[in-house]
Amino acid sequence: MPQTDKMPSSARLVAAVSLGLLGWIGSEMVRDLMPPHTAFGWFNYVNVGLGLLCGWLVIGSRVGSGYVDAISIGLTGAAALVFWGLFTQSFNLMLKQSLERKYDGPFEGIVGMFNNAVDYGEFLLDGTLIGVLVAGGILSGLLAEFVVRRWT
């Protein structure tokens, strides 16, 4: 059977697990930055799932072209994790707000979702959190590249 881009590999697994771990660590750091009355619910688990997906699809599918490229691939994976995390959490809040009849129509709900994302994004502007996300993304890319070179 020829190997294709869709095949599972050890590099995809390592990328998924490492970005999932980064999702958990980042979620724990975000909890400290949010107001104390915030109800988080499944926040960490959703972000771990997003980290697993972004690691598998974004990092794992692109590694294999060298360590320098792995750094940028890892940063892309971390950026994708932050983007989809903001999107998912703001979409969830928009759904909650729409059930509370805060919006008059679907367009207002979509605008509200983007406003929620901007509000959440302001909490992410923390130097320590940004440093951890950058370092974790780079490390995820380098680990996946190491696995590709070692076991391929």
Automatic annotation (TrEMBL):
<feature type="transmembrane region" description="Helical">
    <location>
        <begin position="129"/>
        <end position="148"/>
    </location>
</feature>
<keyword id="KW-1133">Transmembrane helix</keyword>
<keyword id="KW-0812">Transmembrane</keyword>
<feature type="transmembrane region" description="Helical">
    <location>
        <begin position="42"/>
        <end position="59"/>
    </location>
</feature>
<feature type="transmembrane region" description="Helical">
    <location>
        <begin position="12"/>
        <end position="30"/>
    </location>
</feature>
<protein>
    <submittedName>
        <fullName>TrgA family protein</fullName>
    </submittedName>
</protein>
<keyword id="KW-0472">Membrane</keyword>
<dbReference type="InterPro" id="IPR047784">
    <property type="entry name" value="TrgA"/>
</dbReference>
<feature type="transmembrane region" description="Helical">
    <location>
        <begin position="66"/>
        <end position="87"/>
    </location>
</feature>
